[in-house]
Automatic annotation (TrEMBL):
Organism: Streptomyces erythrochromogenes
Gene3D superfamilies: Aspartate Aminotransferase, domain 1, Type I PLP-dependent aspartate aminotransferase-like (Major domain)
InterPro entries registered for this protein in UniProt: ArAA_b-elim_lyase/Thr_aldolase (IPR001597), Low_specificity_L-TA-like (IPR023603), PyrdxlP-dep_Trfase (IPR015424), PyrdxlP-dep_Trfase_major (IPR015421), PyrdxlP-dep_Trfase_small (IPR015422)
Sequence segments annotated as region (Disordered): 1-20
Required co-factors: pyridoxal 5'-phosphate
Coiled-coil ranges from the UniProt annotation: none
Identification of the protein by name: Beta-eliminating lyase-related protein
Keyword terms: Lyase, Pyridoxal phosphate
Family: Belongs to the threonine aldolase family.
Amino acid sequence: MTMGFSGTADLRSDTVTRPGPGMRAAMAGAEVGDDLFGEDPTVRALEERLAGLFGFPAALFTPSGVMANQIALQLLVAPGEELVCDAEAHVLAHEEASPARYGGIQTRTVAAERGVVTAALLAGAVRRGNAYTLGTRAVEVEQTHTRAGGTVHPLDTLREVRELTSGAGVAVHMDGARIWNAMAATGTSAAQYGETADSLSVCLSKGLGAPVGSVLLLRSEHLPRARKLRHGLGGSMRQSGILAAAGLYALDHHVERIAEDHDHARLLAAGLRDAGFTVRPPETNIVLVAVPGAGEVVARAAQEGVLVTAPDPDTVRLVTHLDVGHKACRHALGVLTAVMTDVVAGARKTVPAGRS
């Protein structure tokens, strides 16, 4: 453990960050209007800034990334049509069956290694359709891929996917919930990523540290229907410039520092690997550790002020972010090493004689 640190090291997710004084001041001073009427100047400023950054003609501010994704899918895929995505995609695993429930969308999955959907995979999955066969209307990719441990879709891979889908008349939606981490890890620009998709959702409340909100980037002709869909899903807001101001502040102050989160993820991964645990090498800010009794690790670490999650019974997940600095990460490493070692030792003692 690390001397000089007291408090809680919350590594459950990069969504747990809290706005600091500068962001709170920006929110308090935001110029506002009624966004349902398109009259909130701060919301418009955020939408225009991100549309320009990623090279899209239009943008729509939403309360959440889930809503942004589901609006995009309904814009690209009509009820009864098909979406192809990775079997572990967030839009399937963590969005309450919304493609089917709200969009009437059939999903077809591919088993992508590390969550990276490639043109080679799609070549055997995308169907053109005919009078008797359902055709694929859109492909979804996730940047970075949450359940795979924050893996990055390489730009060349995305360009190959775009080329294949364009030739088949199929659209591409990119769930860019952690696209800021992908940009920090690879040096790829927002515009370069934007060129590979027909629609793109970007989250403000993960790596950027805003308290709420995502923005859907899309084509101009889709904007009126996107606003209607947002309203139907309960996402129309009024003086939401107070929230948009946090996003603008984050764009000004929190983008460059994301690389620090990746450094901290590597620190945690290296320390746990040196302690003898199997760790998936982090590409960005998510660390996955293979350890039996993950639920017990979570509970015991919490007693020591270190909060982590267990996405499955044999995996512990750590996510670094702007509210967990170097000292907190060193403290978390000491606690987790001790707890995991003890849990694994206890599990070995309970194995019946003659078994291994």
